[in-house]
Amino acid sequence: MRMRAVLGSGLAALVMLGGAASAENRAVGIVQAEYQGIASTAAPDANALFARFRDAGYGTASGISLSREDMVRALATLQQPDAAPGKRIVVLTGRFMKGQQDSYLMQPATDAPGLARAAEQGVALSQVIDLMQDGGPMNVLLLGDASGQLRPGLRLANGIGPLGMTGQRVTVLTGTPAAVARAAEVLLRPNATVAEALAVHSSMRQLAGPPARPAVASPGPAVVTPSPEAPVTSTPQLREAQLNLSRTERGQVQRALTVLGYDTRGVDGVFGSGTRAAITRWQRDSRLPETGHLDARTLQMLRDAAAQAEARSPERARDQAYWEDVAQPGGVAGMRAYLERYPNGIHAAEARRAIGAATTQTDTAAYQRALNANTIAEWRAYLDRHGNSPNAAEARRRLAALEAAQRDAAAEAALGLPAAVRQMVEQRLAQMGLDPGRVDGTFDADTRRAIRQYQRDGNLPVTGYLDETMMVRMLADSIFGG
What is the pTM of this model? Predict the structure, then answer.
């Protein structure tokens, strides 16, 4: 059964084209083009790209700006029965967020989720990889990481990080959205190779899967078959992919760069934009080609330089050891302890960023608790702990308003107004067309609103509570018809 799903801004019906069950190549494309509060993603023309896949005989499901439910529905087409599976190519473009164990493509309506809610607003890349495991000889997941930032919640960060699971049957590539679209077109060719897809642009790199290999002989005219005399042109991305670095080894590279004074913006075993920039700066200072990628020779040079730096400076070695043994496992307390000992240390900038992020999250949660309670006690407690936060000015304003209301209520209570006088006040407000609600001597929300309007019309302080001045004014009004 041949399948085709076309998804626009929202989800269209899945269309099954009849016919005998047979093996087929399948492709899924999801381009998230709009995010709340963020400019449009520079997205490739998804419809044109996947039209070419359909023309080539692929069963396709594609869409733009999809909710999480629609993303899941599109990806589920990979599970349709297939007696002899063909290629599986999945293109995901948009904003990605990463936790400690997995990464997620987020839906457009994303409201700063924490790790606990990431799966509610995005699709886990480990699940996508799992759906692709049963494909044929080539299974490639292409991730177009769009520029820009979402506001992450607790235990999440922007970008592509861990993939959860990386089965050897699925190759994962990433690059800019435009580069990923070009790589997908390359893979559309008969007998195309991962190496050719990586070569389309300098931003392309391999995150998982077997090392890229040159293409084999092709019966069609679209690919030129390489030979020993005419090998596939090597690229920095391909040379680094052939190193087949484990996540631990990538973390060692980041530590080496950090020891040499190049900030990778984290030591997590994931080569993101911070690591690429650090590699480029080290290559520039070392008078090497500035590719942002490593090969066997430059990797050894980096390791040797870091070892020499540590040997020359035992203090830097102690700095690094304290970071790994105390700061990283100790959370915010560990970061503060590190900065107290090494205020200008190797990881000082990273420690300050981590503390700043944690402080912002803590402040936001505390402010929300105070806002929900909206009591004098809660606002005072918030300001005691977060008196210098960006929310402090608004917290002081709300606290002052509550304290003023408390004083005004006490002043009204001190008048000792009997129920009959309260009823007279309500009757007078009703006669003036201010709608105080039920005239029963009980001042409810409607009465308070009417009192505030009376005060506003009479150029009196607007409090919603009675005082001696207002009582004298109302008595005069009632006597003289004011």
Answer: 0.44
